[in-house]
Design goal:
Elements lengths: L1 E6 L3 H12 L5 E4 L27 H5 L2 H5 L5 E3 L3 E6 L5 E5 L4 E9 L3 E3 L15 E2 L2 H4 L7 E5 L3 H10 L5 E5 L9 H8 L4 E4 L2 E9 L2 E9 L3 E4 L4 E3 L3 E3 L34 E3 L11 H20 L3
Parallel strand pairs: 1-2, 1-6, 2-3, 6-17, 8-15, 9-10, 9-15, 10-11
Antiparallel strand pairs: 4-5, 5-6, 7-16, 12-13, 13-14
Keywords: Disulfide bond, FAD, Flavoprotein, Oxidoreductase, Redox-active center
Protein name: Thioredoxin reductase
Family: Belongs to the class-II pyridine nucleotide-disulfide oxidoreductase family.
């Protein structure tokens, strides 16, 4: 039996693994199908992590050193997809994997994070991967010296628009309001960039194209419809939490969730089920920042340590 199962290999999961193993647990497994690092590895720029040696580096470069440190004290990385977490009669937890295997653990920390939300305009699904993208660092290269659009008004949208301005010939920033959720300094930086044109308030009515991919967007603006002829649109309109593994066979969640199906936790990252903890983007009121996810992971691990000690 595992002492602790950590599900998810982003900043929260890695931090939890570091604190748990350094705290003395000997049998700690982090379940993550891909390379550790999480969603932040797709970010083009990070400059707000305290003590960061190279502000402005990519998310991939920033996270590249984390696994080495977090595995130093014995954290095990198992490449597997977890499909469900359930509890046994003896209060231990079953970790069900997609290959049919079941691991059993005394405690679990869920750090499955979130994924980019679809914007919902007509043609989005049709051209996803063929002109519609949610990752500028992944796909920006394909639009070198071409015009592209960015949809969104948060920090990620503005930061990625700035990043794309170094690749594309022009970037159209589309947002449904004149005001932005992004930090004022970031918005000002974008407004001072001659390659970025703000189109506000506006929404995307339709994406159109042909078999080769996206050709353009029909926008609803405050004045009239606008035909924006671009081969690429990057959407950054929020995140959906990855909570599917917490659903039980009867369709209900194993623990209490809030109205948006984020996991309810207290200040110690405890869920309503003893021995089950949640950290990072999946928990209620998460700021969805790397620094807070890492902190959540540390808090959850310390709570798990205390819980496991009291089992004996």
């Amino acid at each position: 039996m595992l002492d602790l199962a950590i599900i998810g290999g982003g900043p929260a999961g890695l931090s939890a693994g570091l604190y748990a193993t350094r705290g003395g647990l000997k049998n700690v497994v982090m379940f993550e199908m891909g390379e550790p690092g999480g969603q932040i590895t797709s970010s083009s720029e990070i400059e707000n992590y305290p003590g960061q040696k190279n502000p402005g580096e990519s998310g991939f470069d920033f996270m590249s050193t984390w696994w080495g440190q977090c595995s130093h004290f014995g954290l095990i990385h198992k490449r597997a997809v977890v499909t469900q977490v359930s509890q046994n009669a003896d209060k231990s937890f079953n970790i069900k994997l997609d290959n049919g295997e079941i691991e059993v653990a005394k405690a679990v920390i869920v750090c499955t994070g979130s994924t980019p939300r679809r914007a919902g305009f007509e043609g989005e699904d049709k051209f996803f991967g063929r002109g519609v993208s949610t990752c500028a660092t992944c796909d920006g290269f394909f639009y070198r010296n071409k015009e592209v659009a960015v949809l969104g008004g948060g920090d990620t949208a503005i930061e990625e628009a700035i990043y794309l301005s170094n690749i594309a010939s022009k970037v159209y920033l589309i947002h449904r309001r004149d005001e932005f959720r992004a930090a004022p300094v970031t918005v000002e930086k974008a407004k001072n960039n001659e390659k970025i044109e703000f189109i506000t308030p506006a929404t995307i009515k339709e994406a159109y194209g042909d078999n080769a991919g996206l050709n353009g967007l029909i926008l609803n603006t405050k004045d009239d419809e606008r035909d924006l002829k671009v081969p690429g649109i990057f959407t950054f309109v929020g995140l959906n939490v990855n909570n599917a593994i917490l659903k039980q066979d009867d369709g209900k969640f194993i623990c209490e969730m809030d109205a948006n199906e984020n996991v309810k936790v207290d200040l110690k990252m405890k869920t309503s089920v003893p021995g089950l903890f949640a950290a990072g983007d999946i928990r209620t009121e998460a700021p969805k920042q790397v620094v807070s996810a890492a902190a959540d992971g540390a808090v959850a691990a310390l709570s798990a340590l205390s819980y496991i000690e009291n089992l004996h």
